Amino acid sequence: MDSTINRAQTESNAASKLFGTAMALTGYVCQILVPVIGLFLLLVLFKGKNIIPRHWPLIGLLPAVLLQHDRVLDLGFQVLERCGGTIFIRGLWFLNPGMLVTCVPADAHHVMSTNFWNFPKGSDFRMMFDAFGNGMFACDSEDWSFQRRIGRALCNHQAFQTLSVKAALDKVENGLIPVLEQASQKCLALDFQDLFQRFGLDASFALINGRDPNSLCLDLPDVPVASAMDEAGKAIFLRLLYPKYIWKLQRWLGMGSERILSAAKKTLYDFAADQLSFIRERSNMGTNLTEDGLDFLSAFINEDEAFQSPAGEKVLIDNILSFLLAGKDTTSAALSWFFWLVSLNPSVETKIIEELKAVVPAKGADKGHLFDAEELSKLVYLQAALCETLRLFPPIPLQTRTPLQPDILPSGSRIDPSMKIIFHAYAMGRMSSVWGKDCLEFKPERWVSEEGRIKHEPAYKFLSFSAGPRICLGKEVAFFQMKAVAAAIMHNYHFQVVEGHPVVPALSLFLHMKHGLMVKVKNKWA
Question: What distance in Å separates the CA atoms of residue 261 and residue 432, rounded to the nearest whole number?
Fold first, then answer.
């Protein structure tokens, strides 16, 4: 009898504790949601007024993000322009001391080049970007130096360069063109952004392990790993904007964007592990080289026997995700904005088409033509138009660093290890103090020298490929892919953005279009 009573009392106490915990958690969540909702309604009254968003206690920039979520980057640009290129967003001392947002090129040069080793990406960055592991994109110090050395050697290897050229040209001819031709014949509208993402995915896989997933084909099948990358990119961008404790609470509760991110992480990891397994099997058969050249994973596996260990497996999986992240989304974002900008600027379109015609052999001037590597290298104005697109719409609009030691930036801003530095590449490309009074114009001519060559601009002024020791190793590969795609479409097809289609940036790690880019195409030579 006594034991039954004691057991009942124990169960009652446990239930009380559980109820108390639930009520406390509910109260905590309400303390967050009530001011958020209140401030949101308050800010609605000021919608349309040009106000600088406030970093509120506990909830940070969340009200501004909720109110103007479709123009967060433009809002940042307006604020930075008004504040001289830098702004300090203060947080509560016991939660987040604050962050410095800057679009001053001298600051970028100081942090990314001159004092590179004092400004790693940091542990907070790796925590926010955990969906893509600790590959070259996220790691620091010795890990980064080792992986960077392998990556640089690979990109300079003739076999890899051969593979990258062949992969891009093959995908244009056997993937992109058939889809465009079908749409032309059936008068169908295509989502160019989706096509370019599929192109980037397939071309990246050819470089990662030498096999093509064939996502860019007539059926346009669902690609779970591509969807997972998109969902992860959106969730990571929200982590950058929200106070840390909010997204950590979401992760703990398994709700909101964090629940979606958790599922995306599993999809990405399982997929990368499958790719690695394929390479291992090929390696055991004694064939680490693809038919056309050296691929990314073979280079890493051959470099160091340490990758045979379980820890090495994790490094390889992380780098598969890093490489895929860089290859799939950067070129696709740039190409999407390129075609949208060209559609708004007929004079630029005319100049590009004239340049393409001048490169085509005389015997093929009146029919369809796909450009080879030598012909693509001659397209200066096309590359200038792509550079201009990247200036206005950098694929990665925000980049972060964390100081190890206190410092003073060239802009005069004092920073310390408790702070985060955010480089607003989107704003930097639109600052009149950096690019002149015509900075908001789409003007490829600014990239062409008097000698008719591409004009060099310092990387810290043009952050689309980052700057300093971390500058993108795949820059030349990216330009080649973009030129191959753009030349093939513009020489062979008339294209027109569907009337009334909304074009706005998505709230994501990469500067995608929220609604894609719906376009109709018509074969010029049919």
Answer: 38
